[in-house]
Request: fold
Amino acid sequence: MTATASSRVVLVTGAALRLGREIALALAGTGWRVAVHYRGSAAAAEQTAADCAALLAADTAAVKSATFACDLSDEDAVRRLLPQVAAQFGRVDAVVNNASAFEFDDAANFSYAAMDKHLRSNTGAPILLAQALHTHLQTRQANPADNTAHQPGCVVNLLDQKLWNPNPDFLSYTLSKAALEAANTLLAQALSPVLRVVGVAPGLTLTSHLLSAEEFAALHRLSPLGRSSTPADVVATVRFALENQSITGTTLLVDGGQHLMKFSRDFSLMTLTPSKTQD
Reply:
């Protein structure tokens, strides 16, 4: 018997809000049971899980979606996370590492503390979750009664187009994502054939408190295609990475070509009118 889409389980980190929620809902809509990770947004995470479960109403599994709290900077907590998901759902087949620390620093105010904070959450946690998924899948494959683990599992790491279009803003964040991009290659080598590892690098996708609606719209248009990535674009690419059994150790850029252009500042700090001053 082969595993059906409705039997598969994916852990999505940072799935309570924003892009993580969009990914969780889209995967539930295509039959994945979803483990919703969150750090502090408990109510939003519960809503995401309820919405995922509603999309899986026809699934006969006892657990369709559930929430899991974890501080990704806490190594012991991260090591417990995937086994907790496996215990609740009975299996795990994929991890989407969406959650990220994103705090400003640059060369002038760089510190070990800032670097450590970003590396723990943005690099260390995805590596530990890949390690844990690999161990889990090996155990399932060694069990003759479990004939559903015939395909490799998959880890999808959300990266950033700025790795291919660098600027000096958000130094520690950028370093942590660069390390994770390198880890794609190393983990794909080390954990095959049990596990595939794929990066997805969006461009400017969602606005923030740092940008007005007008600024976001103008920056979103700054690409060879005249538009950067939308949440739907990123979700479609994550789904493609999870489903395509021949992709590993590489990164898919989804940014309308923004990585082909030179930006001297991070999007959140760019200004487009002469009357404004840059930080």
